């Protein structure tokens, strides 16, 4: 991603605490950090801790310590995804209320033949959300074009969904 010359630019690093920081993640953090700092922007830290069975005990602290030892300084406090369930539930509720999302009960095995391109099997099925994935309802959906969808929900909030 290219940084935009703007004082409001915000970059972030979002490691998954399934292990210690590896070299590839360090490079990603450095690129994001330099993008943000080169334009005077903010750089945030967000832990992607939404998969507890895969989380390695102590990995969050080890990742942060490693980054600090390399001189990284993030703005604000570390945001943990696991602390944001209420906010996500609120947004999902808004998306459903505006007809912008739907529940998908397809298993990974069912979707294997589509090679990563979701064919919209549940788009009009009206499934309940329990044990379902939430998918965005993109207008003019097809499998050959890229769609960018923006939704103004409540205040200003945008969702982008790229479907190739
Ligand atoms: Zn589905």
Could you explain the architecture of this structure?
The structure is a single chain. By secondary structure, this protein is of the alpha/beta class. Among the domains are: 10-83, Rossmann fold, CATH 3.40.50.620; 100-136, no CATH class. It contains four helices and five strands, in the order βαβαβαβαβ. It has helices spanning 23-38, 59-69, 85-97, 108-111; strands at residues 10-13, 42-47, 79-80, 101-104, 133-136. The strands form two sheets. The protein has a three-stranded parallel β-sheet. The protein has a two-stranded antiparallel sheet with strand order 4-5. Strand 2 (42-47), helix 2 (59-69) and strand 3 form a beta-alpha-beta unit. The longest helix has 16 residues, at 23-38. It is elongated and about 50 Å long. It binds zinc ion. Residues 104-106, 121-122 line the site of zinc ion.
* Largest beta-sheet details: 3 strands, parallel
Q: What would you report as the Rg, rounded to the nearest angstrom?
A: 19 Å
Indicate the mean pLDDT: 84
Query: What is the CATH architecture descriptor of the domain at 10-83?
Result: 3-Layer(aba) Sandwich
Poorly predicted runs of 5 or more residues? 143-164
At the fourth level of CATH, the homologous superfamily of the domain at 10-83 is HUPs
Category by helix and strand content: alpha/beta
CATH topology name of the domain at 10-83, in short, is Rossmann fold
Number of discrete helical segments: 4
Number of strands: 5
Distance between the termini: 19 Å
The coarse silhouette is elongated
Bound molecules: zinc ion
The residue fraction in helices comes out at 25-40%
Q: What is the highest CATH level, the class of the domain at 10-83? A: Alpha Beta
């Amino acid at each position: 991603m290219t940084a935009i010359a703007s004082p409001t630019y915000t970059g972030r690093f979002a490691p998954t605490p399934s292990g210690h920081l590896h070299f590839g993640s360090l490079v990603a953090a450095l690129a994001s950090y330099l993008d943000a700092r080169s334009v005077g922007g903010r750089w945030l830290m967000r832990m992607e801790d939404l998969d507890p069975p895969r989380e390695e005990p102590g990995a969050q602290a080890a990742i942060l310590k490693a980054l600090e030892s390399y001189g990284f300084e993030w703005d604000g406090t570390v945001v943990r995804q696991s602390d944001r369930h209420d906010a996500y539930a609120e947004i999902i509720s808004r998306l459903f209320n505006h007809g912008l999302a739907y529940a998908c009960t397809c298993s990974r095995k069912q979707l294997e033949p589509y090679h990563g391109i979701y064919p919209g099997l549940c788009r009009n099925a009206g499934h309940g959300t329990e044990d379902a994935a939430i998918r965005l309802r993109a207008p003019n959906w097809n499998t050959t074009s890229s769609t960018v969808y923006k939704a103004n929900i409540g205040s200003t909030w945008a969702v982008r969904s790229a479907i190739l």
